[in-house]
């Protein structure tokens, strides 16, 4: 079986964070032709739920850049790469040293997610908190209420570019942590940082689910640095025109922009869908 794997933001989703009807119709045709497909995203399952609602993603999903693998058939996670208390301490210490507000994402019984944070002090962080609670359905609690024994999937933040880059450099050099940094949709002067365990990656998660599914070939689509691990292991890897230069450089080919149904148009041609 061929397995087609989609990143969401900047790839399968348009700028309104939606799957267009044209793309939805394409996925139906893809499934009818016997080609499997799934998602590999930096989002949590709850943050992705509204975006992929109404589309039959029945194969395992990769969330939080490979930290978690969701099995829709069993409605449970089969794979977790959670942060240790020591790693969490190092991350929070670095954030405190550079004056950046951390958002701590947890995994609880029943697959529920909660975000813990200190008081927010910038408009960008307030916008992020609104996105997480109102649009993505997460419960937000004070960082002081964080239990000592809870599972933590990742720690993220929005910060001014200079301190954000300093945190990224400090934590990316940590032996057991993976740190990503990128531009913010909330404020051009801010950067987005996301940190999780170094054993977690989209490529690693796909390697794990490939054999049980009987997958012979992986064809993936992505636009950012957190997609590079799956680009490296995939048989074919495609970047939309809006992708980062380093992603385009590793791609089998560059296709149309994500906001022009680039992935769907490519799939219709690649698999002769009509």
Write the layout of secondary structure elements.
Layout: E1 2-6, H1 8-12, H2 21-32, E2 36-39, H3 45-52, E3 61-63, E4 68-71, E5 76-80, H4 85-97, E6 102-107, E7 113-117, H5 123-135, E8 139-142, E9 151-160, H6 161-172, E10 177-183, E11 190-197, H7 202-213, E12 217-221, H8 228-233, E13 236-240, H9 245-250, E14 253-255, H10 262-270
Parallel strand pairs: 1-2, 1-12, 7-8, 12-13, 13-14
Antiparallel strand pairs: 3-4, 4-5, 6-7, 6-9, 9-11, 10-11
Helix pairs in contact: 2-10
Describe the structure.
- The radius of gyration is 18 Å and the shape is globular.
- Helix 2 (21-32) packs parallel to helix 10.
- It is built from 10 helices and 14 strands.
- With 274 residues, it is of the alpha/beta class.
- The chain has 2 domains: 2-80 and 200-270, HAD superfamily/HAD-like (Rossmann fold), CATH 3.40.50.1000; 85-197, Hypothetical Protein, Haloacid Dehalogenase-like Hydrolase, Chain: A, domain 2 (2-Layer Sandwich).
- Helix content is 35%, strand content 27%.
- A 6-stranded mixed β-sheet has the order 8-7-6-9-11-10, sandwiched between helices. It has a 5-stranded parallel β-sheet with strand order 2-1-12-13-14. A 3-stranded antiparallel β-sheet has the order 3-4-5, covered by helices on one side.
- The protein has helices at residues 8-12, 21-32, 45-52, 85-97, 123-135, 161-172, 202-213, 228-233, 245-250, 262-270, and strands at residues 2-6, 36-39, 61-63, 68-71, 76-80, 102-107, 113-117, 139-142, 151-160, 177-183, 190-197, 217-221, 236-240, 253-255.
- Strand 13 (236-240), helix 9 and strand 14 (253-255) form a beta-alpha-beta unit.
- The mean pLDDT is 91.
